[in-house]
Amino acid sequence: MTDLCNEIEKFGKGMGNSSRYRIVEALFKGPKTVGELVKAVKQSQPAVSQHLKTLKSCDIVVDERKGQEVMYSLNSSYVLNLLKSLAGEISRKSHG
């Protein structure tokens, strides 16, 4: 498998669950704490924390400690670069 293929597989693992997508959707509006995400996606704190762990391992979400709280945000540069690479690959394959 190519590196791009591996990255797309990793992205798919992160986004391949409706609960994780809801978390990502909530983060479209900006960084949030676990507590804010719990309210936004209406799931338990342990469930949200587990989904965030998966999203972080797939590089879709990053975290930053601010005092006592951890703020979660989208790793938008990673996701955009991955999608641009995929689009470029699709374009090359369809024109070649």
How would you describe this structure to a colleague?
This protein is an alpha+beta fold and 96 residues long. The chain has one domain: Orthogonal Bundle (Arc Repressor Mutant, subunit A). 67% of the residues lie in helices and 12% in strands. The protein has 5 helices and 2 strands; from the N terminus they run H-H-H-H-E-E-H. A hairpin with a 2-residue loop joins strand 1 and strand 2. Helix 1 crosses helix 5. The model has no long low-confidence stretch (mean pLDDT 92).
Task: Summarize this entry quickly.
By secondary structure, the protein is α+β, with helices and mostly antiparallel strands. It has helices at about 5-15, 20-25, 35-40, 45-55, 75-95; strands spanning about 60-65, 70-75.
Task: Looking at this protein, list some descriptive labels.
Arc Repressor Mutant, subunit A, 5 helices, two-stranded antiparallel sheet, 96 residues, elongated, 2 strands, alpha+beta
**How many separate helices?**
5
For the largest beta-sheet, the strand count, sense and barrel status come to:
2 strands, antiparallel
Q: What is the CATH H-level superfamily?
A: Winged helix-like DNA-binding domain superfamily/Winged helix DNA-binding domain
Per CATH, the class reads Mainly Alpha
**Percent range for helical residues?**
55-70%
Instruction: State the low-pLDDT regions, or none.
Output: none
Task: State the end-to-end distance.
Answer: 20 Å
How many discrete structural domains? 1
Rg, nearest Å: 15 Å
Helix and strand pattern: HHHHEEH
Structural class: alpha+beta
Count the E strands.
2
